[in-house]
Design a protein that fits this description.
alpha/beta, Phenylalanine Hydroxylase, 5-stranded mixed sheet, two-stranded parallel ribbon, 7 strands, about 10% strand, binds phenylalanine, binds fe (iii) ion
Length: about 300
């Protein structure tokens, strides 16, 4: 996952000027490989019939089912042949300009550490499981691969227009938490969902969240939550549609309009929304009630 908070401002001593570090694959312990295997087994049982065809195909063609934490060099070699992407290791979150520069040049930045065994269900920082299992299969899809490169270039532009807030929401609601309409129903392609056992059920099956047809400006107006399941998901018709809607649009005038409009709170519905499912919002309401009741 990625949001606007970045911990470091200069590359640490062991990192290169572009913030990359060695993955040090041979340093992973058997326990760390076992954590990957546990997470992998759990998610791969859940995802057939839930994850998008593109994501499932990516997992397969990249042979990510091999036990243990993947070696980025091996992965990069396969990806390079398929779509020209590489996976590079970085020490946690990097500055926005660094993130966009890598992305614009088809380098996907991934954390090399893996969560502790007591963090199997949730952690806020992106670890190697989220980054590789969640994101990398989509990089094997030629259309999505183009989308992410274009997004990186769009990020470099947005930095100069003080519009990262808006572009960041597009990333959140597509790359991290996107759903896609397929022949047999809705499917997950967002990495934040496919790498989470609970949210890969919740996003598709739970009656709580709204599921709204993707609209570029609508998405860029919408706030998001980083602390719990999403209260709204946005659904694209296809990756071709997503690519077209974003690449063929000049965002500069949109940013200007967005700056004049109020942001939309999560779970807010507009009359013009194309709602695929109107959520009950029960999950978020219960959580909030419990939070208030448990205050000292
Ligand atoms: N077309 C966008 C712009 O004008 C760039 C972009 C492309 C952003 C694809 C996101 C995804 O800034
Ligand atoms: Fe992510």
């Amino acid at each position: 996952m990625s949001d606007e908070t970045h911990v470091l401002t200069a590359p640490p001593a062991d990192a290169a000027a572009d913030w990359t570090i060695a993955q040090n694959w041979s340093n992973y312990t058997p326990e760390e490989h076992a954590t990957w295997d546990t997470l992998f087994a759990r998610q791969s049982k859940l995802l057939p019939g839930r994850a998008s065809e593109a994501w499932l195909r990516g997992l397969d063609v990249l042979r990510l089912d091999k036990p243990g934490i993947p070696d980025f060099d091996v992965l990069s070699e396969r990806l390079m042949k398929l779509t020209g992407w590489q996976v590079v290791a970085v020490p946690g979150l990097v500055p926005d300009d660094v993130f966009f520069d890598h992305m614009a040049n088809r380098r996907f930045v991934a954390g090399n550490f893996i969560r502790r065994p007591d963090q199997l269900d949730y952690l806020q920082e992106p670890d190697v499981f989220h980054d590789v299992f969640g994101h990398v299969p989509m990089l094997a899809d030629p259309v999505f691969a183009d989308y992410l490169e274009a997004y990186g270039k769009g990020g470099q532009r947005a930095l100069g227009m003080d519009a990262l807030k808006y572009l960041g929401r597009l990333y959140w609601y597509t790359v991290e938490f996107g759903l896609v309409k397929e022949n047999d129903g809705l499917r997950i392609y967002g990495s934040g969902i496919v790498s989470s056992a609970a949210e890969s059920r919740f996003a598709l099956d739970d009656p709580s969240p709204h599921r709204i047809a993707f609209d570029l400006v609508r998405v860029m107006r919408t706030e998001y939550r980083i602390d719990d399941f999403q209260q709204n998901y946005f659904v694209i018709n296809s990756f071709d549609d997503l690519l077209r809607a974003t690449v063929e649009t000049d965002f500069a005038p949109l940013y200007e309009t967005l700056k004049q409009q109020p942001d939309l709170p999560v779970a807010h519905i507009l009359p013009e929304d194309n709602l695929l499912t109107r959520g009950t919002q029960e999950y978020a309401r219960d959580k909030e009630a419990n939070r208030i009741h448990s205050l000292p």
